[in-house]
Write a structure and sequence with these properties.
Distance between the termini: 110 Å
Strand content: 5-15%
CATH topology of one domain: 60s Ribosomal Protein L30, Chain: A
Structural class: alpha+beta
Order of helices and strands: HHHEHEHEHE
Strand order of the largest sheet: 1-4-2-3
Largest sheet: 4 strands, mixed
Length: 196
């Protein structure tokens, strides 16, 4: 009688690993949970600032709903054709305090301005920056220059030929309102597009 030899493979301790799904699935769940948590935290903060604007209000920026009209490419173009300029005050083009970084709420107006300039390709424009009188004159002139350059960069990044644009800075010179009130200072913080 012949005997068959059967070889039995035994698992050696420490050699058996978990299947890939056994460690990948919890990792993916943790990543999804982290993403949800961070998006929830951000949305909660956004909702809190939206729900109670008086608690987080920027007192240097007047309420845009108080008599400010919505600008379109056509209205911007008409203003430049009629007056040779358009003034974009702090309710329309907004920067953080002492900064040249454009706030996100400025994009809609600047998109319309870019479209108006693209629609009128023969216009050469000056982008002129102004500030209020807070701070010293030299730093305000520099800030006005940087803000005007930010607007010029935005316009050229959105289809306006940079060769048609040049930057000037007036700083705190030529105020259009008194610097004795928040509202007046906000009106003085502006960028003007002036036909060259």
């Amino acid at each position: 009688m012949a005997t068959e030899k059967v070889k039995v493979y035994e698992e050696q301790p420490g050699k058996k690993g978990l299947p890939i799904w056994a460690w990948l699935l919890p990792l993916l769940l943790l990543l999804a949970l982290a993403a949800w948590w961070f998006s929830r935290s951000h949305n909660t903060e956004t909702a809190a600032t939206t729900a109670s604007p008086s608690a987080m209000a920027d007192t240097t920026k007047p309420d845009a709903s108080t008599g400010t009209q919505t600008l379109t490419a056509a209205s911007i173009g008409d203003s430049i054709r009629k007056d040779g300029r358009i003034s974009l005050d702090d309710t329309q083009v907004h920067f953080a305090t002492a900064s040249a970084a454009l706030a996100g709420d400025s994009q809609a107006v600047l998109d319309q301005a870019a479209q108006a300039l693209k629609d009128n390709g023969g216009w050469k424009m000056k982008v002129v920056g102004f500030t209020d009188s807070t701070g010293n004159s030299a730093s305000n002139a520099q800030l006005a220059q940087q803000r005007a350059q930010s607007v010029m960069a935005y316009l050229s990044a959105h289809g306006v030929d940079a060769g048609r644009l040049r930057v000037e800075a007036e700083g705190q010179q030529k105020p259009v309102a008194s610097n004795d009130s928040d509202k007046g200072r906000a009106l003085n913080r502006r960028v003007e597009l002036i036909k060259d």
